[in-house]
Amino acid sequence: MRRTPMLGLAVFVLFSAGCQQPPGAAKKPAAHVHEHPDAGPHGGALAEWGDERYHAEFTVDHGKKQATVYILDGSAKRAAPIDAETITLSLANVQPPVQVTLKADPQQADPKGKSSRFTGTHEQLGKEMEFKGELSGTVAGKPYAGTFEEKEHSHEGKK
Question: Which of 27, 37, 54, 102 could staple 120 via S-S, CB 3.0–4.6 A?
């Protein structure tokens, strides 16, 4: 009968020791935390390019059946002109799925030979819905791609 209290103590010590972290053990690093904007400066949905090297902001004018994509810097606040003639818009939630080539449409402040704005048209862009898909392009020989998804918003007055 004397063994029961000693056995219980031994089990307790063994389990307690197994739960402690040894001295000098490395702790997991804190997760990288930073703010991700919900929309770009033009009110459009954002796609991240290259671990936030760039952002591509998708906007649509349903009446013109036209998409406009703005290339932004890592903060998604300022224009970031690139040396591309086209980028590709792939719409995933329309049937059949659609790819639209968007052509460079430089803004006034963009340097010669670069553009921070790309535009293109397609019949599917006339649908009043929340689009989702992918924006892809090549900058200085490096391919970039990122997904976007429009959030629910009013289509009233936006024809």
Answer: 102
Q: How many residues does the chain have?
A: 159
Query: What average pLDDT does this structure show over 19-31?
Result: 43
Residue 157 pLDDT greater than 80, yes or no? no
pTM higher than 0.90 for the full model?
Answer: no
Q: State the distance between the two ends of the chain, measured CA to CA, in whole angstroms.
A: 87
CB atoms within 10 A of CB 57: 25
Show me where the domains of the chain are located: 45-149
| CATH code of the domain made up of 45-149 | 2.60.40
- Read off the pLDDT of residues 99-137 as tens digits, 9 standing for 90 and up: 999 999 999 999 999 999 999 999 999 999 999 999 999
Cα–Cα separations (whole angstroms), residue 5 to 11, 44, 61, 84, 112: 10, 69, 78, 78, 85
Laid out side by side, the sheet with 117-121 consists of 45-49, 54-61, 66-72, 117-121, 98-104, 86-91, 132-139, 142-149
